[in-house]
Amino acid sequence: MGIEGPFWRAIAVFRIASLGYAAILLVQSGGYAHPVTGWIVIGVMAVWTAVTTYAYSTEALRGWPLLTFDLLLSAACLLSTVYVQGPQATANTMPITATWVAAPVLAWGVYSGRRAGGVAAAVMSVADLWLRGVRGFDLAAVPVNGAVLLFMAGIVIGHVARLAKQAEERMQRAIEIEAAGRERERLARGIHDSVLQVLALVQRRGAEIGGEAADLGRLAGEQEAVLRELVRSGPRPDRSLRSRRRFVPARRAPAARSDQGSDQGSDLGDALRRYGSAQVTVATPADPVPLSPRAVDELTAAVGNALDNVRRHCGEHARAWILVESEPDRVIVTVRDDGPGIPDGRLAEAAKDGRLGVSQSIRGRVADLGGNVTILSSPDGTEIEMSVPLS
Fold first, then answer.
1. Closest CA to 310 of 318, 299, 300
2. For a tag on the chain, would you pick the N or C end, based on fewer CB atoms within 10 A?
């Protein structure tokens, strides 16, 4: 039912309260010409109140046929006042329906806006004035407070309901745009971890080998640049996002799964120890560092990208150290190297050029886990600290 739900529930409550008010007026009057007929009208109103309470809460039943019949039935109950009250009623006597006739006006306004609310108010006001004219009252002396209130209720409620619907639509579009952006970031990380790095490797090795391999490397470099630009700019968000299949990029370094099952998490230390080599030293706590499988996957991939950057920018023989620290509320993974450091402004320039190694494959992954990344660089090396909350 969306944002309209509270409006329809409020109208149902208004109908029930107005029905009780009309019944109290009938009991207190004691002077109506045909009180039995009055109770029959109250009974019809009660049945219709129950019907509309259910019908307006069901989207399949809510529509113009129901709204039209609601308006006509309410007008008929209002006009029955001529017979129920008889000739002794005065111009200020409350109709048998009392305030119950305002319910269809509110329903029209909620369903289709202030114009529809104004039309329904006009119909009920004409019925009320006709009722008083049939009784022989001087219409110039008849109070029009009821008609004014009907118009105000129909127009104001209709306007507010339309604004609420527009706000809901805009919020839904914002949610879809945000979801599309996150999907694009996940896709970009997957492409960076596989296709872009392979193209960069072909370009570098082709230039080293020379000859026809150099031409292949040049073509690979051109395609890498084109693909980076596509990933950086990204497609426009699809408004039919709900129907799209979710793309989950493959990880180059899959996380180890604990024998205890995913309910108790996976050991981050076990997953990161796979990166240990002659050039990479891995230091983890003696006890397991349990995290959710998704968190282990993301952190493992982020560390892998950090090590790729070390090999690419510091050379094949550069040393790197991985340190895992487990605190009561978070896990901290630090990757440090002994390279020449990162020049000032290089990371911002790389993100602008569509190079996603740090901005998405490291920062983006950790941010998706609710954590943060701190990068410290100096001529003696670079240190990347990834902090992820345990929750």
1. 318
2. C
